[in-house]
């Protein structure tokens, strides 16, 4: 009989140090959120044995990544001299075209984009020669993607996974344990409540440090030699927009819009798929309650921030992002003060042609499946819908 996986703080920290062969985290700003998360995983999540193993692995891997980043910063102190120019950040409810828009704009080599393998493995091998050909993270990430889709093939219809594609930096935030990602995998309301009330500044400051690290790597390896600024994307920022703008001054926010009556049940379906990978006690109505409440609060927060900084936001709607990629790109260029690049626009056109949504399997879900109603969601998101959907 195998020993039960230990979710104690001391245990996961010790295991991370042993795996990494390192023992210096630099600082322990991650300790408070990690302790709350570990307690919730043990007490609330009702994890299956596979779920315990997967969530334990996520935690330990995040700690290993922190140790490795600190090691690189000690050996290459110039990493922390990297200047992070005001980024372009795509936000919006999930299922509003944010991934498609990010990957479209990432065709312009003037943007740095965090790639899937980079956000899961920010640190390369210590002896890496700074060539992509010899970067062991890439084949490892390709194996990871294959394994994920083997366990849950339906994910491809919801969120396309590709090791070398641009993806959202919420996984980088997970390395500080100030991230909603764990809540997407299992039922941990205690952690979610704590996170929504806590000052998330340490998480965003650590995100900045990780971007410095990745930017330094890209420069050393000659990737994106013409890059000027980061292109980021995550619905997570809706919950902490004020903090994002404070930690990254001058940020330009591109907000995508789609009716929550369509997006919220789709979000719930995605998270139900993830919960089922980790627990044998999946409650679809509890998923709907948690995530509709969470995004309604996040949208109210972002609307309040928009009222203070209207010049920092550009609005695009789902029908625009899905049918007029070049029009959206030109609007973004004008908004952020960049000259439109005809060669980049052509690359975007070609990428969109090769990555049509209709080429992926359809994603099926209903309001009723999650105990949701049009009236309930309309009331919950009333201010947002009146401002951006009903009276568009």
Automatic annotation (TrEMBL):
Under the heading Pfam families, the entry gives: Sulfotransfer_3
Q: Which residues form a coiled coil?
A: none
Q: Give any GO molecular function from the UniProt entry.
A: transferase activity
Give UniProt keywords alphabetically. Answer: Transferase
Matching entries from InterPro entries are given as: P-loop_NTPase (IPR027417), Stf3_sulfotransferase (IPR052736)
Q: Does the keyword Transferase apply?
A: yes
* The protein, known as: Sulfotransferase family protein
Look up and give the organism this protein is from.
Answer: Sinobacterium caligoides
């Amino acid at each position: 009989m195998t020993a039960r996986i230990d979710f104690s703080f001391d245990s996961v920290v010790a295991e991370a140090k042993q795996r990494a062969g390192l023992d210096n985290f630099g600082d322990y700003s991650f300790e408070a959120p990690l302790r709350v998360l570990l307690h919730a995983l043990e007490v609330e999540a009702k994890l299956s044995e596979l779920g315990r193993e997967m969530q334990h692995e996520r935690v330990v891997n995040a700690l290993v990544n922190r140790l490795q980043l600190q090691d690189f910063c000690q050996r290459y102190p110039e990493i922390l001299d990297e200047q992070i120019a005001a980024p372009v950040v795509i936000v919006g409810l999930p299922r509003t075209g944010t991934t498609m828009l990010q990957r479209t704009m990432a065709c312009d080599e003037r943007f740095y984009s965090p790639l899937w393998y980079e956000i899961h493995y920010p640190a390369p091998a210590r002896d890496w020669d700074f060539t992509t050909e010899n970067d062991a993270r890439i084949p490892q990430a390709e194996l990871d993607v294959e394994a994920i889709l083997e366990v849950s093939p339906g994910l491809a219809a919801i969120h396309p996974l590709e090791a070398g594609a641009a993806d959202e930096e919420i996984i980088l935030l997970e390395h500080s344990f100030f991230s909603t990602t764990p809540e997407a995998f299992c039922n941990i309301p205690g952690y979610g409540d704590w996170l929504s009330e806590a000052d998330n500044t340490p998480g965003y400051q650590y995100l900045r440090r990780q971007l410095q690290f990745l930017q330094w790597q890209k420069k050393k390896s000659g990737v994106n030699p013409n890059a000027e600024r980061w292109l980021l994307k995550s619905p997570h920022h809706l919950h902490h927009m004020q903090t994002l703008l404070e930690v990254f001054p001058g940020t330009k926010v591109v907000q995508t819009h789609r009716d929550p009556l369509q997006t919220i049940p789709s979000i719930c379906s995605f998270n139900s798929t993830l919960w089922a990978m980790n627990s044998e006690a999946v409650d679809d109505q509890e998923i709907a309650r948690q995530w509709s409440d969470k995004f309604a609060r996040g949208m109210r927060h972002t609307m309040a921030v928009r009222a203070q900084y209207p010049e920092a936001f550009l609005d695009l709607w789902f029908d625009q992002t899905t049918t007029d990629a070049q029009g959206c790109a030109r609007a973004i260029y004008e908004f952020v003060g960049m000259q439109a690049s005809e060669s980049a626009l052509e690359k975007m056109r070609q990428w969109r042609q090769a990555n049509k949504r209709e080429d992926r399997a359809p994603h099926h879900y209903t309001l009723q499946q999650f105990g949701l109603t049009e009236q309930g969601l309309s009331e919950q998101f009333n201010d947002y819908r009146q401002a951006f959907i009903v009276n568009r």
